[in-house]
């Protein structure tokens, strides 16, 4: 048995390059999209769809780094265009954690545990929403963020996460991959 045949090395290299290319393209879209002057529902849905699709289709653990890019882009865009707020800066770690939980739970439940796609994404969306809503609630309690954050980081996060999940499902279904 030959472990390192020429074909195995090239096959591994091609797969590695393709996976990194896919991560790079997802990262590029996740960074640029939030900077565009688009409706927040559309941006949130597409961002969540990319996070979910990446979590279920890419094997690399590097894929989880994608969870920080959308909010980092929003923050840096605010720095560049002088409209960054302390409130958004305070929410960054929680947004990262929420996105990470969305990706991790989706991968664990759907890919590893072979649960239903809709059950997996529903639980993942609820996890993300709870993290963000609880953080916004605590920060509001201490007077650090406005009350509108409860809607922005509550219902809106759940709706866009679920919309992203439906979008992934529809695209995968059309392509015969789900």
Helix content: over 70%
Radius of gyration from the CA trace? 18 Å
Q: Tally of extended strands?
A: 0
- Tell me the count of domains: 1
Which stretches are low in confidence, meaning pLDDT under 50 for 5 or more residues running? none
CATH architecture tag: Orthogonal Bundle
| Mean pLDDT across all amino acids | 88
- The SSE order reads HHHHHHH
Describe this protein's structure.
The protein has helices spanning 6-32, 40-57, 69-80, 86-112, 117-141, 148-152, 155-174. The chain is mainly alpha-helical. The protein has a single domain (6-174), classed as Arp2/3 complex 21 kDa subunit ARPC3. Helix 1 (6-32) runs antiparallel to helix 2, helix 4 (86-112) runs antiparallel to helix 5 (117-141) and helix 5 runs antiparallel to helix 7. The radius of gyration is 18 Å and the shape is globular. The mean pLDDT is 88.
């Amino acid at each position: 048995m030959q472990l390192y045949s020429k074909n195995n090395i090239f096959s591994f290299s091609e797969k590695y390059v393709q996976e990194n290319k896919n991560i790079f393209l997802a990262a590029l879209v996740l960074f640029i999209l939030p900077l565009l002057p688009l409706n927040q529902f559309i941006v949130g849905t597409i961002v969540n769809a990319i996070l979910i699709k990446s979590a279920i289709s890419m094997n690399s653990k590097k894929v989880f780094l994608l969870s920080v890019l959308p909010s980092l882009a929003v923050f840096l865009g605010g720095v560049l265009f002088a409209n960054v707020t302390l409130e958004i800066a305070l929410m960054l770690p929680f947004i990262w954690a929420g996105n990470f939980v969305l990706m991790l739970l989706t991968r664990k439940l759907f890919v590893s545990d072979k649960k239903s796609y809709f059950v997996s994404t529903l639980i993942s969306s609820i996890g993300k929403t709870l993290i963000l809503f609880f953080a916004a609630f605590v920060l509001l309690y201490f007077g650090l963020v406005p009350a509108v954050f409860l809607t922005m980081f509550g219902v809106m996060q759940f709706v866009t996460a679920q919309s992203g999940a439906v979008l992934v499902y529809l695209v995968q279904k059309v392509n015969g991959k789900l």
